[in-house]
């Protein structure tokens, strides 16, 4: 009993009160592209990028849906144009919103969806399917329910059965060997239902986009309502995206 | 000098398939361990075989050539530790392996998953329980087929491959500079363990030597990863048995440690930290001075919750004598890492192949005797304690600021290089082979899970099916690390 109390006291208060305001120290979250000229014909950043995230070089545009936040581009830029912030407000409802440049430095803020707010604003059940995920995304998905982020306080929980779920969270690039189980799982969700893409792999195929073992047709038929970028995304990136989209605890 | 955790060999002259089989058998009979054994198809249709062996002298390699028509008689029956390697060689190269008792798919890269040839158990009172690939929690996919007599598991068959994304081939296709980011996702919870093994192989091949301080920063990253993942596993076991204080407090302590990794390198999983030629982030003196306070607080809280766990009768009642793997079975099956140490084997590459970091600051070997779920949990608590003490020593080493990355120049032709690193699950092994022009022509990555999955299947024999979750958590294996 005394031991148990001691553990309880050591635990203290762990939850983050204002999740929207939380800023993880030194998180390499989002690239920032300075508004400066590039050296002529330079493509050092694009060559260094393992994920093909530089979709154009004039002007420099990065696709956050592909970026794995490795940071390998920053040191090779002769003009020192690339830096990173710890931004966790980077989720987007449209795929194209993930394209950033010097002139559009971040995805636009997410507007509340009246329909989703009405349906799921006070209770949302999610089923996770890892389809080639490396356990980075899965670990961070688990973290959103831990004592720090505690998304359960707003009625958002991960459930075991797809029959109990409102939404399907995909992580991983969707391997050929998982394509069928993923489809079967989604078919078991009652309507209304939706898909959410968590991490660079799920959004774009990420580092594996060109691998022949990847089969992404599922996403053609089931377009995600929310894209959560990162490799893996910080739990707060999902938390912020969901809270904004569902209109939870608005300031 | 203790033996090195890497090996380079140029222009190996291959044995014939008969000579190779003979030599491999002799070395294993003489007591060597096989660390890895893989095949690569050559342009002329032959299969190139490579076995990495370890004995007191350190690492050594056997190289052979076999042809498809002749095949290669399997050695698994005599040396069960080879079973998964021979299955993998067969699957990846098509080389016939006559005499292998169950040449089943390792990850089904081509065949449909539904074609997997499961064992069948027949009888009036037997039944099968199929679970997965999608499981109840937020976790990677794999299929478990329990063959039961009542509540008792007679045998568990594990089908993997759902996560196969062809990572070895991608590393070869992409520019070498992109390899590290890919390697970090072989098993995303072992980014450091894999990337260090990869760096060791590539640096050894390119003849690049990083400073001792760089090696120590890498080891700091590795131990932080170990502590964090051991805490994840302990938290999972605790939650599964309803010991909720352990579940939440270990989970919370893990957050502290992964956030420390993030402060040091920008990522909670150590992404982007290690690169061939060095580390992208060092630890400046000011930061190195601040961390010990955090670790001291961590140590106090860790001891408090672990004491509660270790003295709780309900915990002991639930974990003792469940999922037991004897030392003999562990050795025979070639189990590695913390699972092997929990079954009392002396198997820690930080001790056997310490490299410069663990030669300068040795890591004491931890082990447990009973090989059950309790032993695997107790071992992880013990290893967390040892790693934290080690981290405190390492942070006192001066000069941990990172020098710029050393360039990796042209690679030598016809060279094999292998790197080994004791990650939190066990030994991760990376092998690189260049062609006559110094271009990489083969890449082999091995997660310790590849060998330990079969250990889990054997551990469950004779146990109640309801004990599967805690057995599984106590092994804590990687799906994607197996599936590649
Ligand atoms: S940080 Fe993103 S954009 Fe930069 S190299 Fe890495 S993946 Fe590419």
What does the model show?
The complex is a heterodimer of chains A (251) and B (484). Chain A is α/β, with parallel strands linked by helices and 251 residues long. Chain A folds into 2 domains: 31-86, Alpha-Beta Plaits, CATH 3.30.70.20; 114-246, Rossmann fold (3-Layer(aba) Sandwich), CATH 3.40.50. Chain A has 8 helices and 10 strands. A 5-stranded parallel beta sheet of chain A has the order 7-6-8-9-10. A 3-stranded antiparallel beta sheet of chain A has the order 2-3-5, with no helix packed on it. In chain A, strands 1-4 form a two-stranded antiparallel ribbon. In chain A, strand 2 and strand 3 form a beta hairpin. The longest helix of chain A is centred in the last third of the chain and has 12 residues, at 176-187. Chain A starts with a helix and ends in a 5-residue tail after the last helix. The mean pLDDT of chain A is 93. Chain B is an alpha+beta fold and 484 residues long. Chain B has helices spanning 17-29, 83-93, 167-173, 179-183, 191-206, 212-240, 244-265, 285-311, 313-319, 327-333, 337-342, 349-352, 355-360, 373-395, 449-459, 468-475, 479-483, and strands spanning 6-10, 33-41, 47-55, 58-66, 126-131, 143-149, 152-159, 274-275, 278-279, 415-422, 427-434, 440-446. A 4-stranded antiparallel beta sheet of chain B has the order 1-10-11-12. The longest helix of chain B has 29 residues, at 212-240. Chain B is globular, with a radius of gyration of 22 Å. The two termini of chain B are 34 Å apart. Chains A and B meet through helix 1, strand 6, helix 4 and helix 5 of A and helix 3, helix 4, helix 7 and helix 8 of B. The site of iron/sulfur cluster (SF4) has 13 residues of chain A, from loops.
